[in-house]
Amino acid sequence: MPAKPSWFNLTSLVLGFSFLYLPIVILIVFSFNESRLVTVWAGFSTKWYTALLHNQQLLEAAWVTIKVGAISATLATILGTLAALVLARQGRFLGRTLFSGMIYAPLVMPEVILGLSLLLLFVAIDQNRGVWTIIIAHTTFSMCYVAVVVQSRLSGFDRSLEEAAMDLGCPPVRTFFRITLPQIFPGVAAGWMLAFTLSLDDLVIASFNSGPGSTTLPMKIYSQVRLGVTPEINAICTLLVLLVTLGVIIASILTKRQKLKRIEEERLAAAHL
Amino acid sequence: MARKPLGPIRRTFLPWDDPGEQPFIEFRNITKRFGSFVAVNDLSLKIYEREFHALLGGSGCGKTTLMRLLAGFEQPTSGQIFLEGNDLAGVPPYKRPINMMFQSYALFPHMNVEKNIAFGLEMDGLSGKEIRSRTHEMLSLVKLEGFRKRKPHQLSGGQRQRVALARSLAKRPKVLLLDEPLAALDKKLREETQLELINLQEQLRLTFLIVTHDQEEAMTVADRISVMDKGSILQNATPGEIYEQPNSRFVAEFIGDINVLDGQITRKHREDVQLFSSVLGGHLSVRYPTSADVGDHAALAIRPEKMRISFEKPEDQSTNAIQGEVWDIAYMGDVSIYHIKVAETETLRAIVANTTRLVERPISWDDQVWLSWDSDAGIILTR
Amino acid sequence: MTETNLFPKDLTRSETTPPLRHEPEAPENTPTNPVRGWGRFALICVPYFWLLLFFFIPFLIVAKISLSQAAIAIPPYLPLMDWSKGVMGLWEVAKSWSLDNYIWLKEDALYWQAYTSSLKIAFLSTVLTLLVGFPIAYGMARAPRAWHTTLVMMVILPFWTSFLIRVYAWIGILKTDGLLNQALLFTGVINEPLIILNTSTAVYVGIVYSYLPFMVLPLYSSLEKLDTTLIEAAEDLGCPPWKTFWRVTVPLAMPGMIAGCFLVFIPALGEFVIPDLLGGSSTLMIGKTLWIEFFSNRDWPVASAVAIVLLGLLIVPIMMFQRHETRRNEGDM
Known about the structure:
heterotrimer; B: 383 residues; alpha+beta; six-stranded mixed beta sheet; disordered N terminus; C: 333 residues; mainly alpha; MetI-like fold; 2 domains; 14 helices; 73% helix
């Protein structure tokens, strides 16, 4: 690729990324607006953030969301990792096609259908809806994302490491925890983060499967947005965006550093034979 | 066979010639299929205690599958494998007293050298003190004491190879499996390591099974070699026998260089055989025990280093001598390889050691020369 | 969750009772797979049954309810199964199934319009996303090597941040007294504020914006692999740059283009949040119709029928997409 970007390429990059980021930047800027009107700048203020702290309902919803996100992400990571192991390691078995179909379908299935179908299941088995039904719903669709992420990590994994461990007397389950898991850990961690943000983000599936006392933050935001745009929503959105952005950036810096360190050490080993 | 084994014998260790000796490892009628592909085909093999055995063959010949069957990573489609007389069927790899050194070394990237070596000992539930002393012992065995805390990616290729070796030896397995252990090393390091492996095996008195595609490596390290092709063992014998008495054209051509002349047996008296070669239009005499009889098609095979070249016809009537023209000379330093065209469609190779620096009248291109060899230098191949 | 606790327990059990030595046992054939017997069974079963119970069976229930009648009750549909009657009950149930809900969907112009306008919006916004995404992906692929990781990261980052928030952000911009109109009025481009929010234009903007990363990433990975010497070769052979673009660059970027289009089209078809927040009442989309049937009209059987038809619409593109992906991965096109 040529080292000097052309004017056309540079322009399309600048325009493209402005399009991607400008709305979020505007949203963040207006969360510090003095005025109640989100579209007219009336001076800097952090009063909407203070207001958030006193909005009991919002705080409650935030707590529910984090709880649902953490539990469902953890469950989804466990189930998704198992599913990835099955897909990558177990070869053929009865119903494999159905299994891989069930892993890939939720990735493209409209949320309205996922939400509706699960709700009808809970109704059919007479399960009252609440936090746990949302957790189950989120676990189900995010485990598929985890499975895909972990599977791609597994496919780049040297099988002989597992064989070596077993050869040295390590039974299969222990081999998984001692050898496989540490090796695929970056994939598993990325899977957890993805599952957590998917859960944090979800409005539609949660709306179908929530019950009294289990309103999540997106549901709260949605119902307030329908009433109108307020700086208070901007403020909570800003916090959410910053939370996720920070997480992603820190994770990517850590992995990049580790990679650089490793390259440097390999270079040293080659030099000092 | 009444003949004494030829070639270099490293020591008088010949348990396979003793009918009273029980095999340490026995493959009995092993077949392994992957779908429609037959990797190992009804194969039987006995390996004896403290033997250094090599499985030699090209890629896809089934040698690695055979080793993985012994390690327990694959289950045979049919047949049985015995270790010290016990059937290994159903014994998972982690319960077999067999350890393997992997071609890729398979060092655990997240553990340092010490942890890698201690891994197997930990699995055995040894005490921390014992693990430390055994690990230390292994580290000094492979001369890596200064690298205890290094991670695999901080080691050179040769160091990684030694860690892998130490790790697989740490548990003092009954059998050590080596899967192309030296393939990733450069030539010089490989040759050094081959000798180290031999010493290690003698020192530890263990049974080694090595898989390799490198015939020189197999010849150097092994007590016996099994030459494999298409899932079967063609010949299982000592390096000397494999080289001097190959039982088939495949084995003869796989190990080293050899001249093969097709012909028909015209006379046979005990071991003295006369063969007519239509290409040369003459008779050749061989002294070799063979089951082939007069009238059978057979081939005379002879190694290039057993051939002589001269300007004059040798006087001894018992030797075979044919005339030819020097077609090509490859000067290798220590030896020269002469390609002698003996017929329109036949070129034979002779290796001559360069014993002096200067020769009065060197043999050169297009010279007419005599190619000769003793009747007991060649062998008869019937398949 | 009890399901997850099953895993270590079951596997440990299998591990403590392996087939003993000397046991004459027919060797089973599971190539290169050391996890056998109960361990393997448990490993497969845990995720399998989870998905069967919470993904597959719910679809059967949706299909079943779509065939039943609405009722003013809790739950608001007539029961379909009377388990007490056993197999005979099953037969009676099958007799009571009706296609009424589907006939209703067909006869009511509203649903028909919702489907066609969903297809139209999904298709047009896919084309628009491609038009917007291509120059970005092209610019990324042609940027200096050192920028690549950062640029990819910058495209992925919005994908991690909340979808709802990103859609919400556009309301403030597109409103009649929003920032876009303010800016346009201020610069004198227009005299009257444009009405964009609550029209289908806003939906297009929302879809293009939200799904842009899905288009840019596969396009970028195709374009990035493209060897610049190919372009130089074409120009060397006398092909002018614009023609080189059409004859060399575009055909070679095709696999990424197709993947990106599917990744935008499929989810856009069933989109709810964007048409609801940006499209207002004038924009009909099927995801929104389903939502309204379910939450406002409380007609669960009709909502289920709407879901089944939407699924039917999606099956073809989903299968095409999966075939394309397997080919793309195998052939590394």
